Fold:
Amino acid sequence: MNLSGRPWAGRSHAELAELTRELLLAGHLIDRAGMPAVIARLGREGMEHVAIEEWRAASPIYTRRMQRLLGFEGDSVETIFKGMQLDVGAPPEFMDFRYEVFDHDHGRFHLDHCGALMDVEPMGDDYVTAMCHTIEDPTFDATAAATNPLARMRPVHRPPRMPADRAPHCEWTVTIEPDAEPLALSPSFDRLASSTAAGLHLAEPEASLTSDDGSNDYADDLDADLTMERFSSAALSAVADEVALQCHLLARAFLLEVAERVGPQELASIGVEQAAGISGLTTKRLASALGVESDLSGLAAVLAVHPLLLPRTYVPIDLALEDRALSLSLLDGPGLGEDDGLTWPALLAGPGGEAILEAAAVCLVPTARVERMAPGPGEAARWSITVNPGRESAPQPTPVTLAEFSTGAAFVFVRSR
Structure:
């Protein structure tokens, strides 16, 4: 059984909507996987700087890409809000943004539930302030500036919460100020914008999927209670690919910022820890969403839609289940083409990269064994995954356990149901 191409073909509309939600949440949780390693080496202040610059770099790039894909380009507050609804920084329900548009230049939003706040509140007010003040101020403005450099996001109230159970968790106004100084995008943006991923043309929407079971764009008015079910199956296949690319852009932005602060050997270690953490955590969530068994067939189904290996245009693979082994080959492609090697595919193919794949494998099949094989023509790396029922179960990798500190690990989407 070959699972290499066309990851969205044959899937129901409901399954495509669910997988798109899962990819959005996976992108959001990338930092939960990466930041423990950064904090351990650079402290909280170092984490703040990395978080600010990675989001300032990635968010404007993928925001504009999604606007073009779904046909809602513009310079209004409504356009800003639509972009946020399809941003890994604001996965639906886990980050429960509630939007209100007053006119072209004015709007506001509040968060009925902020999963990110739930993650940091147990760590104390210093971490809450770091996230909700130090990090949010420049990153929210960068997100707004991607649509309109004259837009400003300003808090009405925000955590630390007083009283401790205050709801909504925060509230912000968004205003386009004609006389304001246009916000400049950061140098980090310029660096990421020149990457292969930033300008990548993705494959056209899956041709076998219908465009008659939902909208093919988002040109209509803002849907304040947007769910992925709004979009057609064909559109969802394209959105899912874009969201997967958002994950790669954010992970690359993270690695570029860390590279400014640590040496090459330590950088590679942090990169593998980040990728392994999100690899295992996302495997568990995708397995649950797909309802697969904890065996090689289930693992194959998960890897076929795992953000580490999507979109196929960026990460071409050969994935096949034969007899009692799962074969995965990472083929030469754009994800391996960045000069600095700071991409998930490069980490996966590089020394120690098998730890990333092992995290995915043992988090679903604890007795799985991952063996690196000699690559064939056109392959950057090749692995064989087997299961030995008599083998002792492998412990969950530490990076996965650290990433699961996030409440997003066990979060359940309910609105679509």
